[in-house]
Amino acid sequence: MGYRVAIVGATGEVGRTFLKVLEERNFPVDELILFASERSEGSKLTFKGEEHEVRALNKQPNFKGIDIALFSAGGSISKEFAPKFAEDGAVVVDNSSAWRMDPDVPLVVPEVNPQDVHMFDKKRIIANPNCSTIQMVVALKPIYDEAGINRVVVATYQSVSGAGAKAIRELEEQTRAWCEGRPIPEPKHIAKQIAFNAVPHIDVFMDSDYTKEELKMLNETRKIMHDDNIKVSATAVRVPVFYSHSEAVHIETKRAISPERARELLSRAPGVVVVDDPHGGAYPTAIDAAGRDEVFVGRVREDIAFTPGLAMWVVADNIRKGAATNAVQIAELLVKEGLV
Ligand code: 2RA
């Protein structure tokens, strides 16, 4: 038996990747219904060799008959439309930040807290965490289970695709201008020039002077791990990379854990690939992770500032594991658990 699956925000970076991932993982789709803004109405996207026409979300009278709706259309669209889909019977898996901290909405990373999908029924909405949180918690989970975690200090190196297709073009255009000796165009989609730069400003600044992106890494980690005592201090940085976020993660554990044991646990953890032979030149980079669904971990070592503690380098494709793949895995869990 298959499902009627809707994609909201189908023409965006994540929307298009939903299609690829559903196809690659052979998700049981009986019917696919694609929605986007009026601007994209009538455009066509291919799924399993067949073209599907994109409908305008705001022209749809109702959303009856949809089993699962995968949303990646921004917070305000999610706020308005996710409850409408849910009311008409769908389970919504939402990629925006609109519902993540709602106590009636589970926030799920299937490798970490799969049991939380069962709490979907209050609102029939499940939130997909932020990309930089997802890859970090996948790597933290085996360490947490073995040694406990008091605090994490993390610096991110986030690719421009996290800011959407327009930011990808911005990096391309700025780079091209520089190579051709022309003035670099003014930034429009990233706070400062991104070509040949590193910009410590993702999402808006909050009263604490942390950015919202950085606080997502604290608040979402606590919710996913069901542990309000974990402290996470993040600095989120945009770098001139197209796909994959990288993170330097420093962990103070409750109990000592050796790097060897951590590598062993990580190698066995679902969705994790350990690439860690620094002297042999083996550690993961953004380019290695791009197009892949796993979280890559390397540079595992004893932290010299946190005792006991570990340091590691965590890389994942932000559009795949950080967004589309995680959402499709949640849909798979719903199917497996008989919830749709
Ligand atoms: C970014 N975290 O990389 C965002 C995308 N969700 O900007």
TrEMBL record:
Residues 4-120 form the Semialdehyde dehydrogenase NAD-binding domain. Catalyzes the NADPH-dependent formation of L-aspartate-semialdehyde (L-ASA) by the reductive dephosphorylation of L-aspartyl-4-phosphate. NADP(+) binds at T11, G12, E13, V14, R39, S40, S161, G162, N318. The keyword Metal-binding does not apply. GO terms for molecular function: aspartate-semialdehyde dehydrogenase activity; NAD binding; NADP binding; protein dimerization activity. The gene is asd. This is Aspartate-semialdehyde dehydrogenase. Its EC number is 1.2.1.11. It is an enzyme of class 1 (oxidoreductase). Homodimer. NCBIfam families: asd_B, PRK14874.1. InterPro entries: Asp_semialdehyde_DH, Asp_semialdehyde_DH_beta, NAD(P)-bd_dom_sf, Semialdehyde_DH_NAD-bd, Semialdhyde_DH_dimer_dom.
